[in-house]
Each structure stands twice: as C-alpha cells, then as structure tokens.
Design brief:
alpha/beta; Rossmann fold; 2 domains; 10 helices; 20 strands; 28% helix; rRNA processing; RlmG_N; EC 2.1.1.174; 23S rRNA (guanine(1835)-N(2))-methyltransferase activity; S-adenosyl-L-methionine
C-alpha cells in the first residue's frame, strides 16, 4: 500500500474495516494538503490541535509526535483505524485523545483541521461546538477533494467561524481557511425530530443521522414485517440508526431481549434517547461498535438490518456483505436475518451463498424484504 509522507512523518496506514487486497488507500491528497499547510504555518511543540472527521487517522497519526492532538468524529470504525494505525507505526497514543462526535471536544485549540464530511449537518454542528473553544489567533482549515467539496461548506465556515479564503487546487484537493472572528453564541438546530404513525412515535435525530428529517423508505417498507411472536428471543438491530427497528420490535414483543448497534456515535446517542422516550427503563444494550464483530457467536435469534451501501463517499456493498457475515456468525442455529434492500443490489444472491437459503418476505417497486435462516 502507498505510504503517506509528510514533513511530520512517513506512515503505513490501513483502512477499517480491513479487506484482503484493499483497492483503496487510507489517505488522499486533501490529507497531504492539510499537513503541508500546517507545516508551512508552523507548529510549536506545545500546540493544541483538534482534528475533525479523520477517516482513518492520517492526520492525527501524522501529528501525534509533534503536538497535543485531539481527534473527534462520528465513526467508531475511524476510531479503530486511528488506534490500529498508531500501533502499526509505533506512535505514542498517550498524548492523543479521541472524542466521539456525540460529545464536545474541550479546547482551547490553536489549530483546527477539518476533513469536510459527507453530511454537512455534521459539519455545521461541529462548527457550532467550536464556539468558545478556540485559542487567540487560532487557525481553522478545512480540506476535501474537489468532487466532495460543496459550496455550502465554505458558507458554513464563514457563518460560524469567520471570513473564508479558498486555496488553489492541488492534486484535485482544496483547502478553505477561516479566520476566526468574534460571534454571538449560535443556537444549534440539532437534534431534529419527526413523527411516525405506526408505531406512534416521535423520533429524535442528531446531526449525522441518515434521513434525519423523516423515516427512510427502506425502513418504512420493513416495519410492517417485523415479527410479533418472539417471546424472550434475543434480537439485534444491526446498523440501528435512530433505533426505530429495534424500538418497534421491542414494543411488539414485550419479553424480547434487544441489542442496538451502530458505528455512528450520533446514531447510538439518538437511539438511546429514543428508546428511553418509548420504553423507559426497559433493559436494552445500545452500543457503538464495529457491527456485530464483538457479539458472541450463536448469541442471537434474530438480526434486523437495513444495511448501508456506502462508507463516507465510497459506494459499494462491501459493508453490507460484512454485516451479513457478522450476522451469520452471531446467530444461533435456526436464527434469522431479516433485512430490507434495494432490488438492484441483488442481496438474495449473497444471502443464498452465505446462509444456503433466502426467502422473499415482501416487495415494493424499489425494495425487497428478505429473510435468511442459520442452518444446523
């Protein structure tokens, strides 16, 4: 794999989750541009640096031996990548801390390095939280590949930080440098809320939630087909988002034992709050994790899933396939994976290959509801 070389370090980095013969590298030209910019501006040894949305630790690992670094983002996989890449490159972890995006990183910070995220609502919430966290003379710089840099990103930087200057493009990457100015404390528009009729719920959604303003149509297609005769069976909502599938299943099955898992910290935060509102103190496990990777084998009777088909800006079904594999391992004999997917993705073929069986539960013009059973 290519080595990330900057004035700060030369690093051998891996992505998470790891794949054999990984076709994609764990950094890009925007990471290189941000590091070069910081080097040219100068970085004192006691500088406090906040890194936002560092997908695989390229920025934080590069700076780990040179400054006090705080890395913050909404991806548990990014956190795992950071930890793995620090160890892989023999870098000290003692001076580096990670703060989930569900919490506020406490400053003051001298430098803020931002990778512009796919969801601009997340960027907006992060910029709002920077209020009062910047040291005098702080530098705030955001970077992205040109194809992933919407004009609105600069507008948000200007609104919440100060005047913005765009750099020249280098290797199809661009930086946006914002000069902090005194501003009134902003009011965050997040979390947002929406209501659904069946089951009758109001759902809270933090900034980085998928379909934050309304129930996505895939989940809407799956909801009527959740089983209602589970007794005390063990159920996982894999990739739970705001928790709607797990919550609806729990409401229909008062004795069922629920686990809700997502790799997004804001999703887990939303799911916890929604569970509390709908089910009070009913026992549940809700956690940020690498899917069901740490779930004991054979410990589940049912896995519910509306799998993603992208990781950040990379589109593909490798995450879904991995979730299917995790579900297969975690299910007990005769346990079932119940999922919804776009028709064109052909999940039934993958499920037949993995489980040896697959049945179509229902279909809409766009989606199919599929079930696969773990065989003896």
């Amino acid at each position: 794999m290519p080595i990330l070389t900057s004035h700060f370090a030369s690093l051998d980095l891996v992505r998470q989750p790891e794949r054999p013969n990984e076709p994609l590298q764990a950094f890009d030209a925007a990471d290189e541009y941000l590091l070069d910019h910081l080097w040219q501006r100068g970085l004192p040894a006691d500088a406090r640096v906040l890194v936002l949305n560092d997908s695989f630790g390229a920025l934080a690992c590069s700076l780990a031996a040179h400054a006090q670094v705080c890395s913050s983002g909404d991806s548990h996989l990014a956190r795992l990548a950071l930890e793995k890449n620090l160890e892989r490159n023999g870098l000290p972890a003692s001076g580096l801390r990670f703060v989930p995006a569900s919490e506020t990183a406490e400053g003051p910070f001298d430098h803020v390095m931002i990778r512009v995220p796919k969801t601009l609502a997340l960027l907006e919430e992060q910029l709002i939280r920077l209020h009062g966290q910047l040291a005098p003379g702080a530098q705030v710089v955001a970077g992205a590949m040109l194809k992933h840099l919407p004009r609105a990103a600069g507008d948000l930087l200007e609104r919440y930080i100060g005047p913005v200057q765009a750099s020249l493009a280098v290797k199809k990457a661009r930086l946006l440098s914002a000069t902090p100015e005194e501003k009134r404390k902003p009011q965050s528009p997040y979390p947002s809320r929406y209501r659904i009729e069946q089951p009758p719920l109001e759902l809270l959604n933090h900034a980085n939630l998928f379909c934050r303003e309304g129930l996505d149509i895939g989940t809407r297609a799956l909801l009527p087909h959740l089983p209602q005769d589970l007794g005390g069976r063990r159920v996982a909502d894999l990739g739970c988002g705001n928790g709607i599938l797990g919550i609806a299943c729990a409401l229909a099955n008062p004795q069922a034992q629920l686990t809700l898992v997502d790799e997004s910290y804001m999703a887990v935060q939303s799911a916890r709050q929604n569970w509390q509102a709908a089910l009070g103190e009913r026992a549940v496990e809700i956690r940020a994790d690498d899917g069901l990777a740490r779930q004991p084998a054979g410990s589940l009777d049912l896995v519910l899933c509306n799998p993603p088909f992208h990781q950040q800006q990379v589109v593909g079904d490798f995450l879904a396939w991995r979730m299917f594999q995790q579900a297969h391992r975690a299910l007990a004999t005769n346990g079932e994976l119940l999922l919804v997917g776009n028709r064109h993705l052909g999940y039934h073929l993958k499920l037949k290959r993995l489980f040896g069986n697959c049945r179509q539960v229902a279909a809409t013009p766009k989606f199919v509801i599929l079930a696969a059973r773990r065989q003896p």
